[in-house]
Design brief:
The chain has two helices and 15 strands. By secondary structure, it is mostly beta strands. The chain has two domains: about 30-125, Immunoglobulin-like (Sandwich), CATH 2.60.40.10; about 145-235, Immunoglobulin-like (Sandwich). A hairpin with a 3-residue loop joins strand 1 and strand 2.
Length: about 240
Amino acid sequence: MKKRFSIIMAVAMLLLVVAPVQASPNADTSVFAVERNVSVTMRLEKFPANETYYVYMGFNGTYAMNGQLVSKLTTNDGGTFLAKFRIPEYLAGEDIIAIRFQSLSGKSVWWNYFYNDTTQFNPDIWGKDTSDVTYNNLGNGFPTFTVTSVNAGSTITVKTANFPSDVRWAVYMKDGAMDNTSWYEITGFTSDGGVQTLTLSIPSDLQYKEKIAIKFYCMDYVLGTYDFVTYNLVENRDYP
């Protein structure tokens, strides 16, 4: 009996070592309130502490992949809090909008959607109203990029916005799966202060992956840091 118990414990420890780590599996997002075509207020629950997340919006059914980056937030002490996000102009008039919270590391992601219809949930249920919740904006001049086309398994073409002039960037890709952390360096370039279009080759190891993460890593000092990163997640299928 003692021997059998030891074997079970050994197997349990092995599973503990090799299982992929996912931060705060109980974390969740829910819709608190919507002002049609203007904003959505989300309730973020049990998010990991001191994590940075990019927030994207996109068309219904897309999980906001290839969507627009609308915010970047840091959870500080984690826990549960409200955050309000502006709805991009190109999604105005859509009945349902997808929203995605993606960690800077790419290891944590939460998907949701909301009805683009003015609604207000009962404050008595949630314990507060939205009068003191300010917009969570990127701010002017935040460097970002959008995907303009995908040749599945071959190339991804992106267009930059708000990249400063004379700054060096390294471009990486990885499997979009949350538990994969192996980044492949694709190319490097120097931003010229204007809009730049880049066609990025998908590495052979990633050509059959369902989703591909793209990361632009700044090699120079920008926005008060040497570690600035801008990020997106792309479906590996022909687009548009």
